[in-house]
Amino acid sequence: MADKGMVEEGDFLRADTRVFVRTATDGDRAAWDAFVLAHPEGSFFHRFAWHDLFRDVFALSPRYLVAERNGEIAGVLPLVHQKSRLFGDGLIAAPFVVEGGPIGDAAAVKALDSAALALMAQLRAPFVEFRCRKATRPGWIAKTGLYACFVRPLAADDDANLKAIPRKQRAVVRKAISGSLTAAAEEGVDALFRVYSESVRNLGTPVFPKRWFSALRAAFGSDCDVMVIRDGGVPVSAVMNFYHNGTVLPYYGGGTLAARKSGANDLVYWETMRHAARRGCTAFDFGRSKADTGAFAYKKNWGFEPEWLEYEYYLSPGSELPQKNPNNPKYAMFIAAWKKLPLPVANFLGPFLIRGLG
């Protein structure tokens, strides 16, 4: 039995007389995912497959925790120890994704909170970050007004979905539909990486390695696909979509400079809506965007209303809130320089940096 306040592989931490918290193992995979799929706050980003992706692609240290009562899962926490010489370290639930804070009943969540803080002390990490929709923890620091998500219902009928788009944006979509662009849902990631890497380089952001996207496709199977828009057979816009409990999440998307003129960036989301509706999806989650950015305004133009995310932080004594976002002035010169890199150079260097940024 570990000392009180410690979490060790295979050991248990008693939170109260009914709930125990332990480190998750591969044998928990099926029960973990069943719990996530059944829980109203369970998201695509709570699924267990992310554990292996963080470990195998980025060599991070997943510290997934399970709260149990009478041998049954009562709560889960997909916690990851992210450590970087350039960007510091912390315990995050979870990096690279929109959300991932503890889910479960009240007692289980309380136990998971305590276990996360005990692990923070054990690892001497400067902070714990829970990416939650709403802040609920007294004494923790809530970061609000930085990120918002955008979700609305998706109809089964194409005409109804088109009419739900505001008039001005609907005209842009109609023009793209009537043009010569072609759209197709694809299994591979080559076209996606080609346009996505160019897009993020143009924004001054390091790109994920191509194998990250291949690993996502392999890990999530039919719950992940890629919508590609081509102009004369050449990929100009693409987005990787996730599917979870009737919701489609277009997550990693981008386009070439030519895509702006042709309307390909608009068509890729419209075709994703159509494709998801045919799959039986009833909600469209346009993903997370930073306030006062072009992406934020773009999603509002489509008729989506922002729902502000309230990420929560617990800091160790003397630590400060992490500021790993492009709005931080200290990254301005880096971003400007990155935009000027030749694409092959940016694609080579990006994966070495991105593992500490998510």
Give structural notes:
- With 358 residues, the chain is an alpha+beta fold.
- The chain has two domains: 12-144 and 310-322, Gcn5-related N-acetyltransferase (GNAT) (Aminopeptidase, 3-Layer(aba) Sandwich); 148-308, Gcn5-related N-acetyltransferase (GNAT) (Aminopeptidase, 3-Layer(aba) Sandwich).
- The protein is built from twelve helices and 18 strands.
- The protein has helices spanning 29-38, 49-58, 106-123, 158-163, 167-178, 190-203, 210-220, 257-262, 264-278, 294-301, 332-338, 343-354; strands spanning 12-14, 19-23, 61-62, 65-69, 72-77, 80-84, 88-93, 103-104, 127-130, 141-143, 147-153, 182-186, 224-231, 234-244, 247-255, 283-290, 306-308, 311-315.
- The strands form three sheets. The protein has a seven-stranded mixed β-sheet, with helices on both faces.
- Mean pLDDT is 88; it is low at 1-16.
Main attributes?
BioF2-like_GNAT_dom, alpha+beta, 358 residues, FemAB family PEP-CTERM system-associated protein, Aminopeptidase, 7-stranded mixed sheet
Give a short synopsis of this structure.
It holds the Pfam family Acetyltransf_6. Residues 168-300 form the BioF2-like acetyltransferase domain. By secondary structure, the protein is of the alpha+beta class.
List the helices and strands and how they pair.
Blueprint lengths: L11 E3 L4 E5 L5 H10 L10 H10 L2 E2 L2 E5 L2 E6 L2 E5 L3 E6 L9 E2 L1 H18 L3 E4 L10 E3 L3 E7 L4 H6 L3 H12 L3 E5 L3 H14 L6 H11 L3 E8 L2 E11 L2 E9 L1 H6 L1 H15 L4 E8 L3 H8 L4 E3 L2 E5 L16 H7 L4 H12 L4
Parallel strand pairs: 7-9, 15-16
Antiparallel strand pairs: 1-2, 2-4, 3-6, 4-5, 5-8, 6-7, 9-18, 10-18, 11-16, 11-17, 12-13, 13-14, 14-15
Helix pairs in contact: 2-7, 5-9
